[in-house]
Write a structure and sequence with these properties.
The chain has about 300 residues and is α/β, with parallel strands linked by helices. It is about 35% helix and about 20% strand. The chain has 10 helices and 16 strands. It has an 8-stranded mixed beta sheet with strand order 4-3-2-1-5-6-8-13, with helices on both faces. A two-stranded parallel sheet has the order 7-16. Strands 9-12 form a two-stranded parallel ribbon. It binds NADP nicotinamide-adenine-dinucleotide phosphate (NAP). NADP nicotinamide-adenine-dinucleotide phosphate binds next to helix 1, helix 2, strand 6 and strand 9.
């Protein structure tokens, strides 16, 4: 059945491809953006989360909200101010929508929100299921604030789905770009001892999981949205080198060098997340890409 979907942050890397996919399935998609003029090919509405301003007509006829909005995690140094912006842009934004839902008689029934595997923090070789407790560190804390804020929607009688996203592999942009550059320019690099687990996910599957959650009203709760076969950092760069037909002589970037270059953001490269994706498969989602080499061959060939 055709749905009326509002996507927050629909102008981003994931939002753009998800919008196209949902439209191709016959759904109506609108986008909430700080700059609606830049939205192409979908209805756009204005909001400014900092100022707590929102076009109150944005919920007219909407049955599903997909919440993707948030300041970039890797873009800038993690000062205390930046950390607060990262949290507020995810938490205050969904709260603003919940206030509007509570105030208006809306037709909104479902919230499908992004979260991240950062929820688990650095967990070495531990197999991480949705039952695993939260970890420590800024990423874990911010994901907990984000998920808790989204969960508040259940008090409004909404269906809540939270997808803990891993490293999104897309043909252009996102996390793969610096890896491609390294492999092309120098050689493969491993960060720290290279044993940390990378929970990758192909864009087709991430978009597939979001649209599956939108289309199945019986689906609720939190799911790891990562491929069933996470690999270590060393395995990841080795496979990427093979796919890009470059030699694999991994240069090790020691932890102290990453700390100098990235400060606290080194967490993004050193954190080990061996996520388990059985829950989403048992609930009915079938992955298109379970093999990293095939996933990389596809995105590299389209990049
Ligand atoms: N890509 C990944 O590998 C990955 C991994 C784990 C989790 N995630 C999460 O999944 C979500 C979508 O990811 P993405 O890669 O598509 O992100 P993205 O490309 O950075 O897009 C996020 C969007 O959020 C909006 N936004 C940014 N700051 C905002 C603010 N202060 N207030 C309101 N809106 C703001 C922007 O839209 P406007 O400029 O139009 O307002 C932007 O287009 C994010 O929350 C991200 O943390 C992504």
């Amino acid at each position: 059945m055709s749905k009326n979907i509002l996507i927050t942050g629909g102008t981003g890397l994931l939002g753009k491809i998800l919008t196209k996919e949902l439209q191709s399935q016959g759904h109506q998609v609108s986008i909430l953006s700080r700059n609606p003029k830049k939205v192409k090919g979908a209805k756009a509405f204005y909001w400014d989360v900092d100022k707590q301003e929102i076009d109150e007509t944005c919920l007219n006829g909407i049955d599903t909200i997909v919440h993707l909005a948030g300041e970039g995690i890797a873009d800038k140094k993690w000062t205390e101010k930046r950390k607060q912006e990262i949290i507020d842009s995810r938490v205050d934004s969904i709260q603003l929508l919940y206030h509007l839902i509570a105030k208006q008689e809306t037709s909104v029934k479902s919230i499908v929100s992004a979260s991240a595997v950062g929820f688990y923090g650095d967990r070495e070789d531990e197999l991480l299921t949705e039952e695993s407790p939260k970890g420590t560190g800024f990423l874990s804390d911010s994901c907990k604030f984000w998920e808790d804020a989204v969960e508040k929607g259940s008090e409004l009688g909404l269906r809540i789905v939270k997808l803990r996203i891993g490293l999104l592999l897309t043909p252009k942009g996102g996390v793969l770009e610096p890896f491609k550059l390294m492999v092309k320019t120098f050689s493969a690099m491993k960060f720290g001892d290279g044993k940390q687990w990378f929970p990758w996910v192909h864009a087709d599957d991430l978009v597939g999981m979001f649209s599956w959650a939108v289309n199945h009203p019986e689906i609720e709760g939190v799911f790891n949205a990562t491929a069933p076969s996470p690999v270590t950092n060393t395995e990841f760069t080795k496979t990427l080198s093979k796919v890009m037909k470059r030699p694999f002589w991994p240069i090790q970037i020691p932890v102290f060098a990453l700390k100098i270059a990235l400060g606290e953001r080194k967490e993004l490269l050193l954190m080990s997340n061996r996520t388990d994706s059985q829950k989403i498969q048992k609930a009915g989602y079938q992955f298109k890409y379970t093999n990293l080499k095939k996933a990389l061959e596809d995105v590299i060939s389209k990049g």
